[in-house]
Amino acid sequence: MTAMTSPPPALAQATQAFLSSDHGLLIGGARQTGQAGSTFETFDPATGQVIARVAEGRAEDVDLAVKAARKAFEGGWAGTMPIEREKLMWRLAELIEAHGDTLAELETLNNGMPLFLSKFSVSSAADMLRYMAGWASKMAGETLNPSTPGEWHAFTLREPVGVVGAIIPWNAPLNMAVWKLAPALATGCTIILKPAEQTPLTALFLGQLVQEAGFPEGVVNIITGFGETAGAALAQHPDVDKIAFTGSTGTGKKIAQYATGNMKRVSLELGGKSPMIVFPDAPLEKAIPGLTMGAFVNSGQVCAAGTRLFVHASIFDQVMESVAAQASKFKLGHGLDPQTTLGPLVSRQQHDRVADFVRSGLADGCAAYMGASSPDSAGYFYEPTLLVNTARDMRVVREEIFGPVLCATPFEDEDLSAIAQLANDTEYGLAASIWTQNISIAHKLSKMIKAGSVGVNTHILNDAVMPFGGFKQSGWGREKGREVLDLYTQIKSVAVSL
Ligand code: NAI
Ligand code: MG
Question: Measuring CA to CA, which residue among 270, 302, 296, 173 is closest to residue 471?
Fold first, then answer.
């Protein structure tokens, strides 16, 4: 049983000052209350307490934000000198770091993640902006060599797609915001960002930093609000050119349908049920902490989390014992307590969803090697849970749980295609990891796995250069890396008859 750590220390003054300020929408460079004047509460999931009220944006606010974004796009942002956009993005990265302590506290307070993770989120958000900033001046079209008779100057232009609507989830609020903002800003798009209703605070703080950095008004707009109202209005809006969504596969399917109204571009980064495959020669001193973090980091609220663990039968018992021992070292508690290494789930609803899944797994015949319970707390904590005796048709094995629940299965096959079949036996295809020292197995299996990211002796490498996105029902398109430029730009081919 993992011990709960003590209550959190007091918040820094800057964090308190932000919490007690007004949390309006950011539209066209101005903070405003929603047209309907309504607000909603946001919570600390470690205590269940209300920490702030924020403006509730609805369709009419989305419409104002789209008008502001359109005006900024047509009014010169798309034509700014690339180096100018690059400088602004660097300034924003620096402001993120300068206010890193506040951002980290807000992220932890609102999402629940331990401070070590929210601090990492701050530095990776800044790095993502710097990485993408470089593309502003480096992306370009190409010259082409037609075979059509005549003399030609033929080339492509890479142009910004226009007004982008971004809808993001609650599991990594700051990073998800920056994963959308950075490519939009680099390519000369303008953006309306809708954070998840559970975690609006770091996006709102980021909005302040965007203004302080000096981006022209209307380039970045932030609408806090709910999915079925604000989110749907954004995805359906006839003057939004592209929608970028991260979240559940179910909501992603709705977004894709909404987008058909004006055939807006769509990119979707959706759910996962990612396998981790452990061979008898795996470097266990690396694999045990790697598998444990792969499954449980951020309490398993990670789209690429390793949730199906396949271990060669010859080392299955040893790996179960070691993963359980490693996971029992987690300290559950308030994320602001520096000792905490595992925070709560984001909401009561998410907690209950996870508990229901585990109950269904146990009812279906699997056994809890560890966990499968909630500690006594007003917060939404759940113990890291390792399920064995799992079978392929169980809901716990098939569906995305989004909590600290790892399903383990032994395999005896030596044949790689049989192993790949186990790994690929899912409607998802976001990530996978292979743990072995055999380079031939590592490379062959990497090719056979149907997933957008594969790690060898690491679960995933979260780095701005690595394209990220899903095969199958895990989504459309690749974020990060050079590939994200394709999502935020469109190509125009120009032929000049000389
Ligand atoms: P969700 O996918 O419904 O919500 C994500 C974002 O979409 C939020 O900003 C939300 O306001 C917005 N949204 C919801 N319905 C919408 C609609 N009809 N139109 C436009 N936007 C909409 O996820 P939710 O409901 O918070 O969580 C449900 C489950 O989804 C979780 O238990 C988890 O299993 C999974 N999930 C997966 C994520 C991933 O990255 N793979 C992220 C968040 C949730
Ligand atoms: Mg939902």
Answer: 270
